[in-house]
Each structure stands twice: as structure tokens, then as C-alpha cells.
Amino acid sequence: MSEEPESADNPEMPDQANDSEAPDQPVNSDTPEQPVEAESTEQSAESELSDRETEPEESEVRPVSEPTYLSGREPHPMERRIIFRNVDREDWDPSLDRYVEDGGYEQLKAAIGMEPGDITGAVKAAGLRGRGGAGFPTGVKWGFIPPHNEKPVYLICNADESEPGTFKDRYIIHQDPHQLLEGMIISCLAVDAHLAYIYIREEFPEGAKTLEKAIEEAKEKGFLGKDILGSGFDLEIYVHRGAGAYICGEETGLIESLEGKRPYPRIKPPYFPAAMGLYLCPTIVNNVETLCHVKHILAMGAEEWSKIGTPNNTGTRILCVSGDVRQPGYYEVEVGKVTMGQLINDMCGGLRDGRELKAVIPGGSSAKVLRADETFTIGRGDEAREISIWDIPMDFDSLAACGSMAGSGGVIVIDDSRPISWVLNNINAFYAHESCGQCTPCREGSLWMKKITDRVVAGNASPSDIDTLEGVARNIDGRTICAFGEACAWPTESFVEKFRDELIGDTDPEMEDDLLNPEALTAAAHLQ
Ligand SMILES: Cc1cc2nc3c(=O)[nH]c(=O)nc-3n(C[C@H](O)[C@H](O)[C@H](O)COP(=O)(O)O)c2cc1C
Ligand code: SF4
């Protein structure tokens, strides 16, 4: 069993006196619609990559067997399984022996011979973007660790997987834990971290045990611990179980929780924990799926890996489809190579008989809803084109251009059997429950929105309540400490904007008159 050190005894916990030296970064890694910056950094990384000779030769990588999958759980022909290659295999188990037999830890061996900067350079050149929600370029984030830093650097794997509609990381953890460990160890080599954590939510006890066992196995074989594979590089990885709060997925809330405190997200700036994170030291926080990609980038070489997917939206990603489709589940696809229509109709078997698509929430419950009958403009200049919801390519940039986001990859499909007030109320109930309560607009506003949609669902709302609902959401958006504010405001803002008539149809105009009637008001107050 891996046990993490108490923070008070942690030998790597630094003196915090020099914290003011940590530089601030001007962007927030949790805000999805930020520009993908640092082009010059990426360009220099590309040339750096082409100059180097340390990329693994193909012959260094052991051949791996062709997987066979459990009956009924075979990947769809439109999938391209890289991260989920070993998920649902009948010829597979999560042991280290099986992983090594299939070519596991070969990329770690190759990475040990590389310069750390070359690993980061490869990740930058590959164009890997974070799979945790914001789609921020991973290599660029790693590059934010202050140069000439004298404090310890930490790496944290965010396995909190809390976003409603998202269920991918848990399968990697349960079925292929060594893939994650190998990705993490290589990432630690890149950022020179000697202590790393996997922060996993309490609801995944089996996942935590599987990871702890995998860590022990890796240590026994010298892939982890002191002097990894004789390289002189030491690394410990600890599994830290959270208490099961959505806000612990927000990276600064996570860090506070890991430090043993209440998980109140930190005030920004600094925008990135890479500048000031765990114990106020440079810290890289990455999602499970993101960290797994790192080993495949080294295995294929950045150039080959970047040919997967579409420009600026490279690689594969796992889409989790839930809601009103015949075959909900996880589908690993090349980013941007599959449209919403292909995903829903071809891969997920379409909608139920007699049902029509009403809306899709494309990137987890925080993402703005897309109406089935909307048109969207994607592409710029001469390449701009108008498309329907069915033709939206499932990638970061296209979904942002359509006014929503790819987020955590949770695609929630809503057919015409669902009252929109019921869907929004469900989402609002989640956010009202999960607000950490640190800032007033979010704490009060999330509960207020939930109470209003409770009334809409119960038929006790007045038409003007819909305006109030919208006003509350707009007064949260942009006025909070962390991106939870947007996460809880965007569903309401977009649902009201796009389904105002339906929401008003669920209200009772007579309630408006009741607002002037003290007796009715008292009765309504009792109903809340
Ligand atoms: C309220 C909230 C919840 C979040 N939950 C998760 C989560 O469960 N898992 C995750 O990887 N990222 C989550 N994030 C995003 C993280 O803060 C962070 O951006 C991410 O872990 C970075 O990893 P990436 O760059 O690999 O995507 C959440 C963000 C917010 C604002
Ligand atoms: S926005 Fe909400 S979740 Fe984030 S710090 Fe403020 S109260 Fe907490």
C-alpha cells in the first residue's frame, strides 16, 4: 500500500519564504475559451525537436500483440483506440507482467536516455492539449515552470473525474493503470519532479486500490522509486483519495485539499500552479488521459502523433456519450475527424424510435447547450461555412466556434421527450450542491437558480422568473474566484437563451399576479 507522507513531515516541503518570486502567468488554464498561445514557444520547440537525435528508434520499441476484445465490447470501426487500446480486451489484465509483455515501459526506457527539455519539446511539437476540460497545450503548461527554479517541482494527476457526463479516466485507472504510471513517470522526467500524486475521488475505491497495487509492482521492478532503471532518477508516486467533491477537480481546490485543507480554490493570479502550486512550489496538474498520451507521443514520435486528428486539435480523445442514444458509452476518436452526426447516428446507434434530437451538451454539464435546429459558423475568412449540429466536427476549436466547448469530452444527448426545465433543473441541483461557498455570487446564485428551476418544474414559477434566472446566471459569470462560476452559469445562460419559450411555457402567468398578493407569496415561500 502506498501511503503519502503527512505534509508536516514531508521532507520536500520547502521553505515558503520565497514565494513572492514565483512569476504569475497571464492566462487561466481553466477558462476554456482562452487563445491557444505561445506559438513562438511551440515553433522553437519544433525546431528543437528536429535538431535532436534522442527520439526513440522504431526498433527500440518492442512489437505489441493485436488486441482481442470481449464479445459485445469491441471498438466501433470509426474509433481509433490508443489510450483505450487495452480497455475491454479479453486477453488483458491490469498486472505489470501483462503490461510489460505487451511492450509496456519501453517508452520509459527511451525517455531515460532523453534530455528533459526534449520530452517537453516533443509534447509541445505534438500539440497535445489537456483532456481535463480547458484544452490547454500541455507542453506549454510544462514550460511555465520558472527557469532556474530551486524549489521542488510536483506533478499531480487529476483523477477526480467529477464533471457530469464524463466517465473515461476511471476505465484507464481500472483496466490499464500502468499506462497512466508510465505516462506520469515520463512526465516527471520532463519536469524534474521527484514526488507525484494521483488525486482520486473517494467514489473510486477500486481505482485507488488498483493504482496502489500498480505502484507497488512498478517499484518492485525498478520502474519507480529510487534510481529508476539505474538512471539515478528518484520518483515516488502516492495515491491521495479525495472526499468526493466536484470542486476538488479544480486544480487549485485540489491542491488545497492535498495540503490537508478545505478545498477552497485559490485566488488568481497566479493562473497556473506551474508558477505556484502545491506547498507554493511549481506544480503541474494534468488529467489522467492527458498524461497517458505522453508515452504514445514518445512511442510514435511527435510528428507522427501530430498527424492524428486535425491541425491544432491533434491526437485522439475519448468521448463519453450519455443520454438519449441507443448505445451510450465511451468512444475514442481522432480529434475532429468525427462529426456530431457520425457520433450520434453511426457510433451510438442513433436516437430511440420516434424520437427527434432536441439538444446536445457537448463537453460535460458545464458546456453551453447546442439546439438541434441551430446553424453554426465554423472556420475563418474564405474557409468560413455554415453547418448544422450534425456536421460539427468534434474538436476543441469547432465546438468553441459553435459557442460551446469540447470540455471534458462528456457528450449529453437530449431528445424531444425531455422537458428542458427538467434538464436544467437537474444541472442546477448539481451545481447548487457542489459550490464550495467561498464566493457570494456562486454560493447564493447557484442555489437561487436551483430554487427557481425547482419552481418551474413544479409549475409554481411566474414568467418573470425566467428573466430573474437569467439575471442571476449573468451575475455569477465572470465574478467568481474559480471557473466553477462559469460552469454553473453557462448552462442556465444558454438554456434560457435558446429555450426561453419552452421555459416560459412551463411557468404560470397567474403566479405573476400572486407576486402582488401577500398571502400567495407566503404560501409560495412555504413551498420552497
Ligand atoms: C469546477 C471544476 C472541476 C474540474 N474537475 C476536473 C476533473 O474532475 N478532472 C480534471 O482532469 N480536470 C478538472 N478540472 C480542470 C482542472 O482544473 C485542470 O484544468 C485540469 O486538471 C488540467 O489538466 P489538463 O491540462 O491535462 O486538462 C476542473 C475544473 C473546474 C473549474
Ligand atoms: S466560484 Fe464557486 S466553487 Fe469556485 S471558489 Fe467561488 S464559491 Fe467556490
Task: Give a summary of the structure in a few sentences.
Helices cover 39% and strands 12% of the residues. By secondary structure, the protein is α/β, with parallel strands linked by helices.
What keyword list fits this structure?
528 residues; alpha/beta; Rossmann fold; de novo design (two linked rop proteins); 2 domains; 5-stranded mixed sheet; 4-stranded parallel sheet; 19 helices; 13 strands; globular; disordered N terminus; binds flavin mononucleotide; binds iron/sulfur cluster
The CATH topology of the largest domain is given as Rossmann fold
Structural class: alpha/beta
Tell me the name of the CATH homologous superfamily of the largest domain: NADH-ubiquinone oxidoreductase 51kDa subunit
Strand order of the largest sheet: 8-7-13-9-10
Could you describe the largest sheet, including whether it forms a barrel? 5 strands, mixed
What is the residue-mean pLDDT, rounded to a whole number? Answer: 89
Residues in helix, %: 25-40%
Strand content: 5-15%
Low-confidence stretches: 1-28, 32-61
Q: Tell me how many strands there are.
A: 13
Distance N to C terminus: 47 Å
